[in-house]
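protien #1 (seq + structre)
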Amino acid sequence: MTEALGGLNSIIARIREEAHEAAERTIAAAQESAESIIREAEAEAQRITAEAELKAKKMLSAAEERAGSAAEHRLAQGMLRQRQEILSEYISKAAVNIRSIGSDEYFGLCERFMRRCGKNAEGTLLMSESDIGAMPRSFKHFLKKEFPELEIEPSDRVSSGFIIKYGDIEENCTTEALIESSLDRIKEELYRQLFI
């Protein structure tokens, strides 16, 4: 029986040893599987983090670009507004300068505009009372010679320059109308001189 007990002990020892080895293999496999899962999880976490960082950078870049574009747009609008104010100021000064030039120069301008806009036909030349009173003889002579059918009448509608009426047709040659009709050309020229 001792021998049988010794054989039984030997079998039990071997079973224990095999069980221990199987347990170690299972533990090693479990550890290896766990490490593999951890490595995969870390790689996935890095990939997700990299994607999130890239997305955040793109969003930040787009936001910065929009902010930059908006700032550039506001700056351009501000500059345009200032340029328009400067141009308007120069145009206003030009109108004042035309009104304040000497009588000979002023009526010289009126003569040029009459040659350009007027025609020798029955009609009325409307001018301000002050212009009619300040009209030099040379301009009166010019009107009688070139436009003998026009009658001169005072008008409250005219502060500077004149209006020619031929029946229902009017040629508005007031300073304001001439500046207004030439505004785009004047602005382009002033813009070139001031800003280019």
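ok now protien #2
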Amino acid sequence: MKLNDFLVLAGANQKSEIEKVSLLCFYRTVIEDKEEFEVTEICNLLNSVGFAKPNPSRLRQKLIESKLFVKSSLLGSHKLHSKELERLKKEHPHLSKKSEDIISSDIILPEILYSGTRGYIEKIAKQINASYENNIFDGCAVLMRRLIEILIIHVYENLGRINEIKDSNGYKNLSSIINYTISNHVVKNMSKITEETLDEFRELGNFSAHQIKYNAKRGDIERVRLKFRLAVEELLYASNIIS
């Protein structure tokens, strides 16, 4: 996963300066095996991704006072506290060296993610990509919603809990299923990002399918593209379709 994509998923724009630094150092620790960071290096890294470049002396003092960092063996350098590193690993389980092979910036779902899963999942994923690439954004939104619904159902099937999302008329509506899934922590280790956006995918698809005067635009899809990719990957693992 590219650094800028990770920062978007992590909501870095809403974080404090020291939290931004923590995210940047976490990314480089996981992806590049780099654990020790000099203050000037951190300042330049913040600036390179579009954040304000801090005063080195002020940032150094913040690092010293912060519980997120500890001094490293390298003179003048710091590293993430082990507790902060573990917390971030749990919060961002999708980040790994392998994820560099998965992420592609020009489509919604990269082929390496869905290839070899199930035929109907592959077809829906290809249709999502094709509709986006051909500016059929309402179609893309509806298909995104459909894939999320299918994968959530497969999660319950895998857990042997399918009856929990059914009533006398068949499957409950997707809104109820999503609310139940999140409130009951059905998917273990689901990221906070996915928990917060599952219903957004449902709503986006519903608007495109049912609102007479609404037409989805590229920006509507682009805004949730990375989060959708993350949700699909997490649900594929949770349903044991990929492992």
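Residues 21 and 42 are 7 Å apart (CA to CA).
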